[in-house]
Design brief:
With 361 residues, this protein is mostly beta strands. The protein has one helix and 28 strands. The chain is globular and about 45 Å long.
Length: 361
């Protein structure tokens, strides 16, 4: 094993150990983070915004985007957060952020018509440029993803019976609506969920997946050509109601994916809230032991082939077998989660909560 291989294995083992350590330290009260040295450590943000958009870059740098037009950035591992919100954006609802480094990031605002916008910064949030504003009252953009620093997509709920895909080839500086000839028809009542920035995710240079709900079945759509043509596959996650379906996706490569979701209403159960695919989304199988409640975000732990975290308003779950079985490890409220190639995991959610998964010193 090379020294790099040893380093990666140490990082993955450490992160799994941190997640498992949460099971050994019960919270002081429901919704609070354990005081143990290992586990989710909430970082001070100085705001009560709800952060459904999260873009960890590395162990030191992360971006978060949320309600009331709020964008935060840290460059010291979460010890401090700088408010880098775009000027005059207080009425916007940011639900997704994609960051390339400490200076360059793209944020997506959701809503009907002109409420859906994309803004971009190249100077760490000191200034922002609006690069897209939706002028079609029928469109409602939910999520975006980038394949690399130049190529990215954003998705809208169906327009004229098909999901609308927006494409950029210059890092988010300009956007074009792709033709919909290769897009399957949407089901009646079907849409995406702007809950965690993970209803549209990519892996590698060309593959992208789109999560749906609200229709008769919860589906995942897949494209292998950056959004030009798509195939749709049913998942076992329940749908049949506007509040039910697949809310978050994560693929660690072109083949291995996890889907999470359920029913986001607090008074409704969420059975079969997890599913896995080992063939790039062509087929999906329900988790043998799924998360016990609605989950909106999911992320693979870096350099760990079978370990992932799922988060939602009632807690965090860990799998160490590729999504087949899940175990609740924390009861704090989070909407989304993300991990970085250099071995750090972050989560964010309501009331300004942003946390980092830490290991014992």
């Amino acid at each position: 094993m090379t020294s790099m291989g040893k380093t990666r294995r140490t990082m993955s083992v450490g992160l799994i150990g941190a997640a498992l350590a949460l099971t050994l330290a019960a919270p002081a009260r429901a919704g609070e983070t354990p005081t143990a040295a290992a586990g989710w450590q909430v970082t001070p943000t100085g705001t009560d915004a709800r952060f459904r958009g999260l873009a960890p870059v590395d162990r030191r740098t992360a971006w978060a985007a949320g309600s009331k037009g709020t964008v935060l950035r840290t460059t010291d591992g979460g010890r401090s957060w700088r408010n880098v919100s775009p000027a005059g954006a207080g009425d916007l609802e940011f639900r997704d952020v994609e960051a390339f480094d400490a200076r360059r990031a793209v944020v997506l605002a959701i809503g009907e018509g002109e409420a859906s916008r994309v803004l971009r910064t190249e100077d760490g949030g000191a200034t922002w440029t609006e690069s897209f504003r939706n002028t079609d009252a029928r469109a409602f953009y939910d999520c975006m993803t980038f394949f690399d620093h130049r190529h990215g997509l954003a998705m809208s709920d169906p327009v004229d019976g098909k999901y609308r895909i927006l494409s950029t080839r210059d890092g988010g500086r300009s956007w074009q609506v792709l033709p919909d000839a290769g897009m399957p028809d949407a089901l009646p009542g079907e849409a995406g969920f702007a809950a965690s920035g993970q209803c549209l995710v990519s892996a590698g240079p060309r593959d992208v997946w789109l999560a749906t709900g609200g229709g008769a079945t919860a589906r995942v759509l897949h494209s292998a050509d950056r959004g030009l043509t798509w195939t749709a596959t049913e998942t076992p996650i329940p749908a049949g109601d506007p509040a039910r379906g697949v809310f978050g996706l994560a693929f660690r490569d072109r083949a291995h994916g996890i889907a999470v979701g359920g029913d986001y209403r607090k008074d409704q159960p969420s059975p079969r809230a997890g599913a896995v695919s080992t063939d790039g989304g062509r087929t999906w199988h329900g988790s043998a032991t799924p998360p016990p409640a609605y989950r909106s975000g999911v992320a693979w732990l870096p350099h760990a082939k079978a370990a992932a975290l799922a988060v939602g308003p009632t807690g965090t779950d860990l799998t160490t077998d590729g999504g087949r079985t899940w175990r609740t490890i924390d009861t704090g409220s989070y909407d989304t989660v993300g991990c970085t190639p250099d071995g750090s995991c972050w989560a964010s959610g309501e009331k300004g909560r942003i946390a980092r998964l830490t290991t014992k010193d």
